[in-house]
Amino acid sequence: MKSVAASEREGLARYETIQNNFSLINRRFEDELAQACRQEDISLIPFSPLGGGVLSGKYSGGKTPDGARFSNYLKLGGRQAAMARRFVNDKSLSSTDRFAAIAAEAGISVVTLATAWSKQHDFVASTIVGATNEGQLDAILAAADLTLDAEVLRKIDAVSKEILYPMG
Predict the structure, then answer these.
(1) Can you give the pLDDT at residue 133?
(2) Pick from 61, 67, 48: which is nearest to 131 by CA?
(3) What are the tens digits of pLDDT across the range 128-149?
(4) What CA–CA distance (Å, rounded) separates 128 from 131?
(5) pLDDT tens figures, 9-43
(6) Are 90 and 59 in contact (CB under 8 A)?
(7) Which of 89, 122, 129, 148 is most exposed, with the fewest beta carbons within 10 Å of its own?
(8) How many other CB atoms are found less than 10 A from the CB of residue 72?
């Protein structure tokens, strides 16, 4: 907001977009920043719609897959392990399991659900996705033209209200 005010005051180019981590397990952007974006007509381009891969389900059931980012971070210890625990914890894993059940009921993968959800907000211009290998792209790209219906969104919101702020 200070930057927008300064750009207006000085007649300079203003921010049109911002990038923030935004996913089903990290909805903090909705608290205040979403309203600021709406008010100032600034778009969010969220990154990490899969919560660092947690929402793919690959860490569910206590798994630490070889070569996965947070598996490696946990082995390194220190700051990396602390960051991994922020993403991979009981609340984020429980949320992921619940979101996977919602996705299965809707006939889509949890990856597709999470990606579609991340782009389905009035303040989102586009979503930054990533894949480690080509095989992961199908589920991500299935979200491109998908709009989640009101019932699916209601179920997602219910999980988010029951398990507040999985990433802290």
Answers:
(1) 83
(2) 48
(3) 998 888 988 999 999 999 999 9
(4) 10
(5) 999 999 999 999 999 999 999 999 999 999 999 99
(6) no
(7) 122
(8) 15
**Closest listed residue to residue 165, CA positions, set 105, 114, 115, 90:** 90
pLDDT in tens, 35-86: 999 999 999 999 999 999 999 999 999 999 999 999 999 999 999 999 999 9
Taking alpha carbons only, the member of 115, 128, 132 closest to residue 43 is: 128
Token readout for 74 is: 């946990």
Continuous segment of H or E residues that includes residue 44: strand 43-44
24: nearest Cα among 102, 84, 81: 102
Q: How many residues does the chain have?
A: 168
